Amino acid sequence: MSTMTYNGIQQPFVTVLEKKRPYWTPLKRNIRMSRSGRPRLISTEKELLVQPVTLLIEGNSKSDLLNKAEEVASWLVTKEAKRLTFSDQPNRHYLAVIDGEVDVNEIVSFSRITVQFICLEKLGEEHTLSLTSTSKKFVIAGQESTPWKSYTKFATPQSSFTLESSVGKVLLEYKFIAGDVLEIDYEKRDVKLNGKDLSISVLLETVWFELPVGEISLKSSVPTELTYDERYY
């Protein structure tokens, strides 16, 4: 038995009894026959990873159990996918949301329920890279390329900002002043200055890029912190 944390919360009255944890995300191979009559692999698509999890909810009485069942519903039913972590593998996380019906077996002051988690991503550790104007090599961990976020605080006025890698670049043209805070979210293509949208400053020459697994060169015109999560199959 183990415990689980979902959306940053671990319920003390909930125990994980059983889970069917696939070793990797299911893959769908698209194969076509070539003119010579031989099969060719055209592309590979990741399908959704589904994890059935059986939970034990313990109460002090029937009414207490029903109250705790409502707490579990408030905890697990979310509008967006949240981070899911199991105590027996604390260095791996799933971006997950529950789906479908709940199978309930209720006995006096405790109940056994099975829920289905739809896992959109499997994540590892978070890393923060410190970038400067001098190109530096970093090794991106994990099994799949990953999105990133950056944080930059300007110490002096600047008329532009660049964040470059060996596979792409982000170019901004704007009159930054000392104290300005620039935040970029690659996945959402969000560019914010002091919390306000600044996407209009993104130049056409920008080539958005994910961080590929392995070695990559990175630099920025102003000292910048870039963070990413390891991604796994």
Automatic annotation (TrEMBL):
Residues 142-232 form the Siphovirus-type tail component C-terminal domain. Residues 52-119 form the Siphovirus-type tail component RIFT-related domain. InterPro entries: Dit_BPSPP_N, Siphovirus-type_tail_C, Siphovirus-type_tail_N. Pfam families: Sipho_tail, SPP1_Dit. This is Phage tail protein. It comes from Lederbergia galactosidilytica. The lineage of its organism: Bacteria, Bacillati, Bacillota, Bacilli, Bacillales.
